[in-house]
Amino acid sequence: MIMKIATIIARSLFGLFFFVSGANKFLHFFPEPPTQGAGAQFMGAMFETHYIYVVATCEVVGGLLLLTGRYAPLGLTLVGPVVVNILGFHIFMDNSGLPIALIASAFALFLLWRYRGNFAGLLKAPADPADTRSQPIAAASSTAHS
Questions:
Q1: How far is CA 144 from the centre of its chain?
Q2: What is the pLDDT along the chain (146 residues), one digit of tens a residue?
Q3: What is the widest separation between alpha-carbon atoms in the chain?
Q4: Cα distance between residue 63 and residue 12, in whole Å
Q5: 109: phi > 0 → left, psi -120 to 50 → alpha, else beta; which?
Q6: In a 10 Å sphere around its CB, with 0-12 CB exposed, 13-18 middle and 19+ buried, how is residue 126 labelled?
Q7: Rounded to two decimals, what is the model's pTM?
Q8: Residues sharing a CB contact under 8 Å with residue 67, sequence separation 6 or more, in sequence order
Q9: What are phi and psi of 29, to 5 degrees?
């Protein structure tokens, strides 16, 4: 029972963090912290190319899915790459936000562990790599060309 409550709290906080962070990239209701050096160049390129809006969309949609709890594993799938990039950014380019990046990573790992059953199929290798029964898309495409 305690783990179920902890999961709901972690999922809600994590989802809220990403929803607000992603919405802020569109609506600018909180000022972005200033960065310098390579971090500033990286963020400048993200804004200049408008790629930041792709990331923000993943954050908003993933955050909403986590907040609702209905499709939490899909929400984790959308925000997972964002978490990796946040962590990499703060390790290699701007150490000032590293504590928040580590907290976000801890939440992500906790939630991935709690929803591990939903991701089990991704980590299960087929017994025989030549066996296409566990890979219906590949099997369908190979028979279409015959």
A1: 35
A2: 999 999 999 999 999 999 999 999 999 999 988 888 999 999 999 999 999 999 999 999 999 999 999 999 999 999 999 999 999 999 999 999 999 999 999 999 999 999 999 998 888 877 776 666 655 555 455 555 54
A3: 58
A4: 9
A5: alpha
A6: exposed
A7: 0.82
A8: 11, 12, 15, 16, 19
A9: -90, -15
Q: Which token pair is 11? A: 């999922």
| Structure tokens, 109 | 């790992």
Residue indicated by tokens 């909403």: 64
Cα 110 off chain centre by = 13
Residue with tokens 């993933």: 62
